[in-house]
């Protein structure tokens, strides 16, 4: 495999979004005196957040609707009375505080050190532009990457093929010498495969995957077996 360029997703792939997000909510709730059981809140919030991100990828909700709606629906579901004004404050503080936490998945530095010697590394992310760079700098991985392509800079979101094509053009790469690594089968893996890119799926939750179109790994160190 003549790989020269490795494109990574960020959240849920290198940056441990769930752990960092949980810590962020704890910080925001403490600051705003939100008296809810955090685990009960998160049990409702996490699937709702996934639904909203899917709608966001499909251009069915805006960024502001995502930020407000996922919180409003969660508080309603747990019967916690809260004003729209406070929801807006929480939404803003959540985004502000999120990059303060910098937990990465196991072996992130090991695999980035290994790959950096051999390949040009890049990020393709659907995450909000103002947050992603802060996350990468806070967790000390920003310097590993030559190009960082955000969906907001393109004006479209993965799995839209134009995002991947734009990323390849930005990195001066092509489908033959590049590979995509990410956690979302829909956004990262199928999106990449649909334009002819090879792909590796990060399956850190050990879900049952049946596909011969791509390989799934349970640890970042397994990338060494494929490139």
TrEMBL record:
Signal peptide: none annotated. GO terms for molecular function: 5'-nucleotidase activity. It comes from Polaribacter marinus. This is YjjG family noncanonical pyrimidine nucleotidase. Transmembrane segments: none annotated. It comes from the Bacteria. InterPro entries: HAD-like_sf (IPR036412), HAD-SF_hydro_IA (IPR006439), HAD-SF_hydro_IA_YjjG/PynA (IPR011951), HAD_sf (IPR023214), PGP-like_dom2 (IPR023198), Pyrimidine_5'-ntase_YjjG (IPR052550).
């Amino acid at each position: 495999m003549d790989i020269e360029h490795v494109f990574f997703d960020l959240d849920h792939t290198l940056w441990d979004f769930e752990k960092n997000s949980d810590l962020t909510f704890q910080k925001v709730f403490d600051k705003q005196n939100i008296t809810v059981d955090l685990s009960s809140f998160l049990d409702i919030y996490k699937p709702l957040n996934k639904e909203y991100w899917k709608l966001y990828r499909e251009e069915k909700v805006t960024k502001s609707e995502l930020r407000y709606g996922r919180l409003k629906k969660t508080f309603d579901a747990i019967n916690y009375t809260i004003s729209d004004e406070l929801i807006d404050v929480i939404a803003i503080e959540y985004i502000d505080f999120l990059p303060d936490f910098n937990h990465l998945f196991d072996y992130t530095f090991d695999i980035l050190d290994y790959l950096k010697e051999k390949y040009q590394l890049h990020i393709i992310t659907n995450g909000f532009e103002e947050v992603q760079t802060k996350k990468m700098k806070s967790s000390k991985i920003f310097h590993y990457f030559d190009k960082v392509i955000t969906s907001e800079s393109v004006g479209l979101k993965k799995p839209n093929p134009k995002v991947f094509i734009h990323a390849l053009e930005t990195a001066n790469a092509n489908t033959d010498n590049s590979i995509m690594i990410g956690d979302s089968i829909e956004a990262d893996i199928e999106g990449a495969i649909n334009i002819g890119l090879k792909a590796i799926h990060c399956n850190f939750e050990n879900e049952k995957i049946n596909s011969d179109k791509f390989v799934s790994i349970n640890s970042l160190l397994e990338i060494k077996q494929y490139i």
